[in-house]
Amino acid sequence: MEKFYITTAITYTSGKPHIGNMYEIILADAIARFKRNHGFDVLFQTGTDEHGEKIELKALEAGVTPKEYVDQVSKEIRRLWDLLDISYDKFVRTTDKHHEEVVRHIFNKLYQQGDIYLGEYKGLYCVPCESFFTESQLVDGKCPDCGREVKETSEEAYFFKMKKYSDKLLKYIEDNPSFIVPVSRKNEMINNFIKPGLQDLCVSRTSFKWGIPVDFNPSHVIYVWIDALANYITNIGYDTDSCSDEFKKYWPADLHVVGKDIIRFHTIYWPIMLMALGVSLPKKVYGHPWLLFQNDKMSKSKGNIMYPDELVELFGVDGVRYYCLHEVSFANDGNITYELLIDRYNTDLANILGNLVNRTISMANKYFVGNVTNKGVSGQEDDELISLVNDLDSEVTGLVDSLNISGAISKIFDVFKRCNKYIDETTPWVLAKDIENRDRLETVIYNLLESIRVGALVLNPFLPSTSDKILEEINSKDKSLKFGSHEYSGMNASPIFLRIDKEEMLKKINL
Ligand code: MSP
Fold first, then answer.
1. Using a 6 Å cutoff on CB, does residue 21 contact ligand 1?
2. How far apart are CA 354 and CA 360, in angstroms?
3. Sheet containing 151-160: order of strands
4. Is 262 close to ligand 1, i.e. is its CB under 6 Å away?
5. DSSP annotation string for 367-409
6. CA of 135 to the centre of ligand 1 (A)
7. Nearest to 249, CA basis, from 500, 5, 506
8. How far apart are the first and last CA of the chain?
9. If we measure between CA atoms, which residue out of 286, 276, 281 comes closest to residue 172?
């Protein structure tokens, strides 16, 4: 069985994650489930990033120890991932003992072989972003990422010799054209960072305590990025002198799914770290676009944060999954507002899908007391629908393999839309008036049931519980992804997605 190791970024435990963070996990989950359904031996890892100055400050504000703080937030993050049906196989925490130990070993090894040296860091530091900036990187004198004040800081620090590996990295990126996707991100990395010359990376801090101490100089803690990035290998059993069977089996990762803001860390620092350790590089890093609120970044200070559990209350798990997967395309940011969510829910989930399933089962029950087989009386309307359904899995596979997940889910909904059009074209209620047309009518209903069955199966990785529910309603256990000949019976229609009253819901959420 071919293996597929997929990871997400590990989420900061500075606070409760919002729907933007959740998007990435849903995206990776859809890919992981898809690969599993297609016979891959999948290892799907996600987790939490728990060290750093920001978290230390948050804990202080909350009057608890940093460990107490991250325990609580990590638990909450896991609860949200579970709530959204995320099928992760492993959940890593950077405060796990084993992770901490291996990170120390990695740091020691890099130091001993001369890739890390002691120097001094001078610069403008943004505490919330935990990043140093140069004067020219600031925007209006403030942090270019979050817009807050930066402070002039200088400290003794360890540095990683990035420059040493620059040519080797460039060659790897050029020799492996699909290592960084989308290609616009790859060009950005090459032209804006690698070609102008890499700076050595500061990899320790003395200004705070909440981190993994450097073994041979404990006044320093290992800077979060070395600590965080290592999760992808520590948690599957890498160590500097021996590695587990799991590591040997699953590494290198087949896909790192990360947001566009941290692609630099994953396509420059991470590969260089691995090169220095003599470990092979991941096969692909996908820097996905973002989900924005009214086309703006979500932040507490702007008061425009949407939380996953609150959205699930209103739209259900699959309502939220559908919106996220459909709305953010392969390379362009998506937008989320309550109005858009309601509209999309009503048009796609309630009308196109929900009504289709409901109408089809109702017709089967009304005209054939629920027993439907293929009577083989075909009509001119059938061919297009049948070939669309028979090609669906291979089309969707192509789209998932090229990481076009919004394209994949739209392709499935195209089949459901085509089914609705097929109902309009074949007009079953007219056929039902004439006993002569009985076999044609049964064939039409059969074609609809087969299309719904295959559509629901292909939909499984994206909306798992909806898929299960539909298959249960049409009472089918058949797993074939092509039109076949089955007998349908014992079907039961109950609405999958109820139409939302927009005004009422907006009132309820106070808009
Ligand atoms: N802890 C680091 C990642 C370390 S990986 C070795 C981090 N954490 S984060 O919590 O800030 O972000 C986690 C992921 O969520 C990142 O990939 C980030 O790009 C993504 N997103 C944050 N806001 C987002 C949106 N609004 N939309 C989509 N993804 C977003 O960065």
1. yes
2. 10
3. 131-133, 116-126, 151-160, 201-202
4. yes
5. HHTT-B-------TTHHHHHHHHHHHHHHHHHHHHTT-HHHHH
6. 25
7. 5
8. 51
9. 281
The span from the CA of 15 to the CA of 7, in Å, is: 21
Whole-number Cα distances in Å, 276 to 174, 198, 279:
19, 15, 8
Cβ(272) – ligand 1 distance below 6 Å: no
In whole angstroms, what is the distance from residue 228 CA to residue 269 CA?
11
Report, at the CATH architecture level, how domain 338-511 is classified: Orthogonal Bundle (1.10)
25 lines ligand 1 (CB under 6 A): no
Q: How far is CA 481 from CA 318, 393, 476, in A?
A: 22, 7, 13
Q: How far is the CA of 498 from the centre of ligand 1 (A)?
A: 33
Q: How many beta carbons lie within 10 A of that of residue 507, not counting itself?
A: 10
pLDDT tens, per residue, the chain with 511 residues: 999 999 999 999 999 999 999 999 999 999 999 999 999 999 999 999 999 999 999 999 999 999 999 999 999 999 999 999 999 999 999 999 999 999 999 999 999 999 999 999 888 988 887 777 888 889 999 998 889 999 998 889 999 999 999 999 999 999 999 999 999 999 999 999 999 999 899 999 998 999 999 999 999 999 889 999 999 999 999 999 999 999 999 999 999 999 999 999 999 999 999 999 999 999 999 999 999 998 888 887 787 899 999 999 999 999 999 999 999 999 999 999 999 999 999 999 999 999 999 999 999 999 999 999 999 999 999 999 999 999 999 999 999 999 999 999 999 999 999 999 999 999 999 999 999 999 999 999 999 999 999 999 999 999 999 999 999 999 999 999 999 989 999 999 999 999 999 999 999 988 6
Task: Note every long-range contact of 183-191, with CB atoms under 8 Å and residues 24 or more positions apart, other chains counting.
Answer: 184/331, 185/260, 185/263, 185/267, 185/287, 186/267, 189/263, 189/264, 189/267, 189/268
Domain boundary assignment for the chain:
338-511
Dihedral sign, Cα of residue 138, residue 51, residue 229, residue 184:
negative
Q: Are 211 and 221 in contact (CB under 8 A)?
A: yes
Helix (H, G, I), strand (E, B) or coil at 6: strand
| 259 C-alpha to ligand 1 centroid (Å) | 6
Q: Ligand 1, atom 17: nearest CA belongs to which residue?
A: 259
DSSP code for 260: G
Q: SS3 sequence, 202-221?
A: ECEECCCCCCCEECCEEEEE
Radius of gyration for the alpha carbons in the chain, expressed in angstroms and rounded: 26
**Does residue 227's CB lie within 6 angstroms of at least one atom of ligand 1?**
no
Distance (Å) from CA 17 to ligand 1 centroid: 9
For every residue of 119-146, DSSP letters joined together read: EEEEEEEETTTTEEE-GGG-BTTB-TTT
**Residue 9 Cβ < 6 Å to ligand 1:** yes
